[in-house]
User: Fold this.
Amino acid sequence: MAGIADLARIHTPLRAPDVDHLIGLVGSWGLLADLCFSDLMLFASMGHPADGEGAERFLVLSQVRPTTGQTLYKTDWIGRVVTDHERPLVARCMSLGEIISGEVPNQELRELVRVLCIPVRRDGRTVAVLTREAASSVGRHTGELERTYVEVFHRFARMIATGEFPFRTLDEWEGDAPRVGDGALLLDGTGRIEFASPNAISALHRLGVHGQLEGNLLGELGLPESAVRSAFGRGVPAYDEMERPGEVTVSMWCLPLLEHGTTTGALALLHDISEVRRRDRLLLSKDATIREIHHRVKNNLQTISSLLRLQARRLEAPEAKAALEESVRRIRSIALVHETLSLEAGDDVPFLEIVRPLVRMVEEGLVSPERPVSVTVVGDAGKLPATMATSLSVVLTELLQNAMDHAFPLGSVHEPSHVELRLGNDGRSVTVLLRDDGVGLPEGFDLEASTGLGLSIVRTLVTTELGGTISMRRGRGDATRPGTVVELVVPLSEDPLDPLAR
Ligand SMILES: Nc1ncnc2c1ncn2[C@@H]1O[C@H](COP(=O)(O)OP(=O)(O)O)[C@@H](O)[C@H]1O
Ligand SMILES: [Mg+2]
Assistant:
């Protein structure tokens, strides 16, 4: 279904500011449909056919049904074209620029429809016609609530005809506009409550306001008055929240009712948002709890790695020492992911923020004056799901460690050496390219047949855990320093909850 902006742009001669005005109207007219218990439609002229002959045609730009009453139209009218013969009232309203009413036959219902045509005016011109469509058989709204709502609707209708509605400042409603079903207070020209709907009375009860409402100012009932003051003082809608701390929160939109620039009253729309606020608070605390847990996991992992390091210091055998040091680095690389998760809200981690300290960790442990290796990081892998980031950081630790240990064996390197880590993420997969300019892979090296613990871990994590691929090949350097290139490609799963998608 085409949106109002496209319909207007393609099929009508309306100009952009006029279309914006209509978008604003449609953005807040749910309220109007509720107030008059009727369907509303918005017609724009498509002009006469090019030859100047024939009927003027009108396009239905938008339609809204009331939540307070029954709709007349089960079918969608948006995008339909009618002629001035079918809708003579719309045509007359368009040319007169005045509110008119009458009846038209409705094929769908085979009965007459009472139509009120309201010219939508902007800058002294009629840019569209808004119609209220009600069945002739219904509409004897006799209750006080119905009469009051319809009366307020007519006040808004006059504001539409003078260009005072929609309000210019209602951008913040953003499809979240309040509707009258949530409770409404009608205030008179002095700001005193003239009428309170049953839902409004209940909402105020929950706030602890009991007793007579009619005839009182909000301030006299102990309620905040700033929104009312803005609505009356500046003639613009204003928002406020009323709270019974920790229990009930009620939001209030105060809409001025204007007559040629003067505020003659206001409609205050109430909405109990306690549940929303409670959930917000809960989410906030849940988020804080999750981060706290990551923080504790990180601390525990750091404790474990410290204990292992103490153990390593007491060992004599260099091989055993080295094995424990490797384990320390593996554990610390996982701790880095939890540290990042303890700082960020949400489940995704900016991978670069893990890679940098990880590189530093390997450098601290393995780079020395006898082994002058510099590591550069190029590119970015973006934000990755926590589980993927954890596996990848362990994999990177192994690969960086191998580059140090095997590409640049102690004593073999005298000139400055380099390791380049290149990261990429094209939205479908993450690529990691690790390139060193070291002594190269041993003769007859076969990744699949390699039995070392490090590459076994890498293979398991990359292929089984992450569903990716890994390749290791000789670099392009000279015979003494050919170097090694390791390439990983890891798919980003479409749906992280669906293991089959990985
Ligand atoms: N960047 C590299 N340059 C040269 N050889 C490498 C490199 N990475 C891995 N290797 C070779 O792969 C072997 C297996 O590595 P790995 O599984 O990590 O075990 P370990 O590091 O304990 O020897 C290494 O012993 C080494 O021969
Ligand atoms: Mg290794």
About this structure: The chain has twelve helices and 18 strands. Residues 398, 401-402, 405, 452, 454 surround magnesium ion (ligand 2) (CB under 6 Å).
